[in-house]
Each structure stands twice: as structure tokens, then as C-alpha cells.
Amino acid sequence: MTAVIEARNLRKSYRGHHALDGVSFAVDAGRIVGLIGANGAGKTTALKAILGLTDFEGDLTVLGRNPRTQRDDLMRDVCFIADVAVLPKWLRVSQALDYVQGVHPRFSRERAEDFLRKTDLKPASRVRELSRGMVTQLHLALILAIDARLLVLDEPTLGLDLLYRRQFYDILLNDYFDKERTILLTTHQVEEVEHLLTDVLFLRQGRVTLATQVEAIPEQYLQLTVGPDQVARARSLKPFYEREVFGRVAMFFEGRASSELTGLGDLRTPSISDLFVAKMQAT
Fold this sequence. Notes:
Helices cover 30% and strands 29% of the residues. With 283 residues, it is an alpha/beta fold.
């Protein structure tokens, strides 16, 4: 299978700071990939490289194209929602549809209008009259109506309340995603999207610390919570990270069989958010 995105040894520096420091990964078709990292980890720089919005060193292909030299062609098959995406305040909802219909050959106005009928948005409403959640709904209507193979989302629900965030992801999963489309997203609200993800890519200081399918995590990682009487024994098995939890110690192990840890305490597969914290704070 040809990868939708294939990156090899990506590098990008800003005034001596390595935003990307030898990043390599691949994304297959029909996956929902979480690109997760702290502020300054290199997430947005990676997205800009994928979208052809910044220069970089290394090799990168997106949908079989070079984003540096084939961006116009690439963007026929890619949609993007940024955390700072804005629309002119004077623009009416209907005019937003007019514009995208005029510039994107794969936009279906009928599909966009069908989605908008399920919301409180009115065609004559101006952007300045809309709440932030409603503006996000308008962005989503435009995106859902484009027959794109790759959707890139950079903190798409930043600043939205819980209701709008859940609605956004429910619509994305039920009305947009299928096995022919791929979604790459960054978010700080890992707990809210981890049930959607098929793959995770952790970045730390411009480097990949984990790239795996979610279904493979139980085979690679275990979380063991032990009482004081078992701490020394559990530590002898070399956890890569540990933290105290209400008088007990939660330890994270990589590459250990569950049989080695059984009987020492409570054993489970770590959540993506817990594994992310462990990977980010491990020395």
C-alpha cells in the first residue's frame, strides 16, 4: 500500500532552534492519526511542511506529490482547518459557499447546504454575528462538501465548549471519514479524541518519540500501579516512567510481558493521554 504521507528525515530550523530534527513517519490511507506534542514540539511545522507552506530539508511525499513543487495540484485532494482559521467578519454564510464553489473543483454546494440545514446557521448571517462554535460549524460545512482524500486539522476545536467539540468530532467521524479518506489532526484535548484515533505520532522537541497503531499499544506498553510493599520489586523490572497516585506508584513499561508484572499490582493498558505524559516526561 502506498502511504498517503511519507516523511524521511525532515529537518527545519528557526534561528538555531530545531523545530523538526530528523522526523520520519508514514501515514496510510483510511487512518485517523493524532499528531500529539507539547507547545513547541514541532506539530505545526510538520503540518506546514505537509501542506507545502514551509521549506524543509529531507524527503516528503503527500498523496504521491512533492508539496514543495506540486502544491497547487496537491491541494485539490487536501483540506485544512487551522486553529487560527478566520473568515472576514463581513462575509455572509451564502457568500462563503459561493467563494469555495468558485475556487474548488471538488466542492458540492448541495452537500454543504444539506449540512447547514442541520444547524442554526442562516444563509444571510454574517460571520460577525456568529459565535465561535457556529463559525467552526461553517468551516466544517465547507470541508465536508469537498471530496478530498486527506483532511488536516490543527487544533480544530480550540476555544470551543464541550458540546461543540463533541459535535465536531461526531460529525467528522460519521459524515466525513471512510476508508478512502485520511485524517491527520493535532489537539491538546487528547482524552476527547483518543477513542477516534487509529494511529498516534508523539513529537518531543522536534523528534518522534512514538509512532504506532493504537491497536498495537497493548502489545508494547503496560501500566502497573503498585503499593509501597511492591515498589522495589517492580522497579527492578526497569519502568521507563513512574509517578505517585494517591499513595501508590504508577509505573510504565515498554516491551515487558504481562506475565512478568502479574501479581505485583493493578495492571492495564495505558490510555493514550497517560502514555503521552509518560513519554514526554521520561528522562
